[in-house]
Amino acid sequence: MHREDDDDSERTERKGVQPFLTSTNLSDMSRVPKRVFAATQKRAASFTVSHPGIPRVSGPRAVSSPSHFRSNTPVIEEPADSGCDDICARVEALTVGASKAGKRGSRVGRGMTSDYGSNPFFKPKLPASLLRQPTTTPIRQQQVDQSPYRPPSTTPRRSTQARFVNRFTNDRCPDFYNERMEAMEREFRTFKEKMETDVREATDYKATIQQLQSRVTELEAIRARLEIVNKGLESELDDTRSCLKSVKMELEMIQQKHTFEVDDVRRRLRNEVEDLESRHRKDTDRMEREKDEAERKIRNELEGRIDKLLKEHNEELAGLRKKLDADTEVERSRRAQEAQKLEDEYASKLRAAALDADVKQREAQLVHGELVNVKSELDRERNLKAGLQAQLTEAATNNLGLDAANKAMKEKINFLESDSQAQSEAFNDLHRRMQDAIEAAERAHDKLRQEETLRRKLFNQVQELKGNIRVMCRVRPTHEAESEPAQITFPDNDTDSKEVSVLGPNKQSATGKDVTAAYSYAFDRVFGPVSQNGEVFEEISQLVQSALDGYNVCIFCYGQTGAGKTYTMSSADGMIPRATAQIWDEAQRLQEKGWRYTMEGSFIEVYNETYNDLLGRSEDLDKKKVEVRHDAAKKQTNLENAVSVTLDGPGRVEEILETASKNRTVAATKANMRSSRSHSVFILKLVGTNDITGERSEGTLNLVDLAGSERLEHSKAEGARLKETQNINKSLSCLGDVINALGSAKEGGHIPYRNSKLTYLLQYSLGGNSKTLMFVMVSPLQAHLQETITSLKFATKVHNTHIGTAKKQTKSS
Ligand SMILES: Nc1ncnc2c1ncn2[C@@H]1O[C@H](COP(=O)(O)OP(=O)(O)OP(=O)(O)O)[C@@H](O)[C@H]1O
Question: Where is there biased composition of kind Low complexity (predicted)?
C-alpha cells in the first residue's frame, strides 16, 4: 500500500510537473528551432524571478548559448535573490500538492476512498502553512505584471535596455521573441488559474484530511481499546478453555465411575431380585405345602369325626331297632292274647249257646219260636263276630301304625334326650372349624394373589434389567445326507452357554501364508446342535408369560434358508404350540386368582410386500387384500379382512397351524419355496380382566418366522425370484433400521416403521412398550459359512442395541 502510495505520489509529482510542461506545449515547441527553444526556456526561467519582490530562482543555469546572439552590450548582472529558491519550492510544492489534491479530490468525488482516509499514517508532503496561504496569486500577479516583456516599460532599466538571453552572457534577445513570450505568458496565466483552483481544492482537501485524521485518531483509540478488550477476552477464553478441559476430564472420570457403579448396582439388584425370586418361590412352595397339610389334617379330622358319629348313630339305631322289635313282639303277643281271649270268650259263649240250643232244641218243639229268635240271635252274634274280627284287623293295623309312631317317637326321644346336646356342640364345633379353615384358605389365597402380583413385578424387573431386546443363537444339527460341517465350537458349553466361535474361511496373508481367523460372538444364550425345542422354550417361557401380564412381545427367527427357523418356530413341539399351551395353562391357573382371559389368534404372511391371511381360504391367497390399521390412541393394531380364531381350548392352536401350513403348501405350488421367501407372523392377542382387583391387561404375543436372509448376489436370482429377494432384503434391512433407530433415538424420535410392511405390521410390538427376542439360526455347514458369519454379525449388532424400558398395558377398570 505504502509502496503504491509512494509510487502514486511519485507519479503525481511527475504529473504535477507535467501540466507545466504541457502548458509550455513541447510539441509546439518542437516546431521551434532548437536554438530558439533553448533561448525561450532560459527566458522562461528568468522571467519568474525578474520581479524585485520575488526572490530569485536558484535553479541550474545554462551557461551555453549560441554565440551569434552575443552582443557587445555590457552584461547587467541581475541581483541574486535569496527568496527565489523558497518561492520556487513553494510553487513546485503547490503544483505537486494541487495536482495530488486534484487527483485525490477527484477520486473522493467519485466515491473512492481517499488515501488519507485509508492510511492514518499518511503525512502530506505539503507544509500546512503553504497550503493555507495562497500567496502565490499576488506573487504571480506581480510576476506577470512585472514581466519584462510587457510593452509599457515601468522599469527604465528594462525598457531602455535590450533583453538578454541570460545573465551570464551579454547576448540580447531579438525582438521577434516577444510574441512567443506572450504566448508563454498566456499559457502561464492559464497554468496559474489552474494552480489557484488546485490550491483551493487542496485547502478543502486539507480540511477533509484533518477531519479524517481526527476520525482516524478516534478510530485508532477505539482500536487500541478494542485490542485491550480483545486481549482480555482472549486470556478469558484461554482460561475458560483450560477450565473446560479440566471439567471434561472430571466429567469423564465421573462418567467412568458412574458406569462402574451402575453396573455394580445392576448386578447387585439382579442378584437381589434372583434371591427374592428364589426366596419367594420357596415361600410359595412352603405355603402351598402348609396349606395342603392343613387341608389334609382338617379333612382327616372331619372325616374321623363324621365316621365316629355315623358309627355311634348306627349303633344307636341298631339298639333302637332291637328294642322296637322286642316291644312290637310284646305288643303283638298281648294283642294276640286279647284276640285269643275274645275268641275263647266267643267260643264259650258259642258253646253255651249250643247247649242252650240243645236245651232249646229239645225245647224246640217247645219253643220253636224261641229257636228263630236264637237263630236271629246267632246271626246277630255272627255279625258281632264279623264286627269283632273287623275290629281285630283294625286293631292290628292300628298296632302297626302305633309301632311306626312308637319307633319315630322313640328315635325322637332318643335324639332329643340322649345325645342331642353333645351332637349340637359337635356340629357347632365342626362348623366353627370349617369356617376357620375356609377363612385360612381365603387368607392363603389372598397371600398367593399378592405373591403372584409381586412375582409378576419382580419377573418384569428382571426382564427389564436383562434389556428389552435379547438375542439367542441356535445351531441346527447336521443331517445324515450332509457333509463337510463348518468348525463351530461352543467355548462355555459346560455352563450356561453364551458364546459361539466360528472358524472363518482360509485366507492368504501378505506373506503368502494360509491364515484362518476364528470369530467369536456372544449372545444372551447359545444353543448347540444337541439342544431340543423344550430346552429352547424354557429360556423364552418367561417372556411368553409377559404377554399375559400385559406386555407386547415379539419373538423372531432370523437366518438363512434351511437354518432351522420353521423347525424352531412352527414344528409340532416348536415355540408356537408350546407358547400357546403355556398361555392356556397359565390362564387357567390364574382363574383362581380372579383373572379371566380372552385369546384371539391370527396368522399373517408378508409376501412381496403384501399381507396374506394364512387362516383364510386358500383360494383367497394373493387375492383378498388384508389391511393393517393402527389405533394410535390405544396403541393397537387391527387387521381387516383377516380371520381371527378364538382360542377356547389348548387344541385350537393345532388347527391354526394346520390351516396355515395347508395354505402355505397351496401357495408353494404357485411360487416355489414360498415359506422360505415370505415372513409369517403368528399374532396372539390376550385380554385379561380381574374381577377381584378390577385390573385389566392387554398384551400381544407375536411369533415371527422370517424369510431366508441370504443375500442377493448369493441367490443369483432373476425375474420374479429377483423381486422376491429384493423385497426380502428390503424388509430385513428395514427391520435392522427400526431396531437401530429404537436403540439410538431419543423419546419421540422418528422410527422408520413405515418403510416395510413387516415393520409396519409390528409397529406396536417393536420398541419402547414391548419385549423383543431374536433367534439367529445358524446352519452347521461349511458351504454356508459366509452367510453364517453375516447372520452372526447382524445378530451382534441387534444384541448391542439397548431399547428403552417396556411398559405393561394394564388398566384399572
Ligand atoms: N434343531 C434341529 N434339530 C433337528 N432338525 C432340525 C433342527 N433345525 C432344523 N432341522 C431340520 O433342518 C431342515 C431345515 O430346517 P427348517 O425348514 O426349519 O429351516 P428354515 O430356516 O425354516 O428354512 P426356510 O427358510 O426354508 O423355511 C428341516 O428338515 C428341519 O427338520
Answer: 132-143
Residue listed under C-alpha cell 302305633: 402
**688 Cβ contact list (under 8 Å, min separation 6):** 548, 550, 587, 590, 595, 596, 597, 598, 695, 696, 697, 698, 699
| Residue 809 marked as a ligand binder | no
Single pTM value for the model: 0.49
The C-alpha atoms of residue 682 and residue 705 are separated, in whole angstroms, by 9
* Ligand 1 atom, smallest distance to 531 CA: 1
* Ligand 1 centroid, distance to 393 Cα (angstroms): 94
- Residue 161 pLDDT level (bands cut at 50, 70, 90): low
Of 769, 733, 773, 767, the residue nearest 751 (C-alpha): 767
> Using one digit for the tens of pLDDT, what is the confidence trace for 271-314?
888 888 888 888 888 888 888 888 888 888 888 888 888 888 78
**Residue extents of the structural domains in the chain:** 2-175, 264-450, 467-506+515-800
Nearest CA to ligand 1 atom 8: 564
Separation of CA 46 and ligand 1 centre (Å): 124
Residues with CB under 6 A from ligand 1: 476-477, 559, 561-567, 675-676, 708, 777
Q: What is the pLDDT of residues 110-137, one digit of tens each?
A: 433 334 444 444 444 444 444 444 444 4
- For ligand 1, the distance from its centroid to the CA atom of residue 468, given in whole angstroms, is 27
- Identify any residues that bridge with 772 across adjacent strands, giving them in sequence order: 469, 554
Question: Using 50, 70 and 90 to split pLDDT, how confident is the model at 81?
Answer: very low
CATH class of 467-506+515-800: alpha beta
- Alpha-carbon distance 546 to 582, whole Å? 12
Q: Taking a C-beta distance cutoff of 8 angstroms, is the pair 70, 191 a contact?
A: no
517 is written with which cell numbers? 481367523
- To the question of whether residue 688 is assigned a binding role by annotation, the answer is no
Task: Encode pLDDT of 556-599 as tens digits.
Answer: 999 999 999 999 998 889 999 999 999 999 888 888 888 899 99
Residue nearest to atom 10 of ligand 1 (CA): 564
Mutate to test the pocket of ligand 1, among 567, 657, 664 (most ligand atoms within 8 A of CB): 567
Q: Using the mean position of ligand 1's atoms as its centre, give its distance from the Cα of residue 529 in Å.
A: 12
Q: Whose CA is nearest to atom 31 of ligand 1?
A: 567
798 alpha carbon – ligand 1 mean position (Å) = 23
pLDDT of the residue at 670: 54
Ligand-binding annotation for 441, yes or no, is no
CB 778 within 8 A of CB 475: yes
What pLDDT is attached to residue 480?
Answer: 87
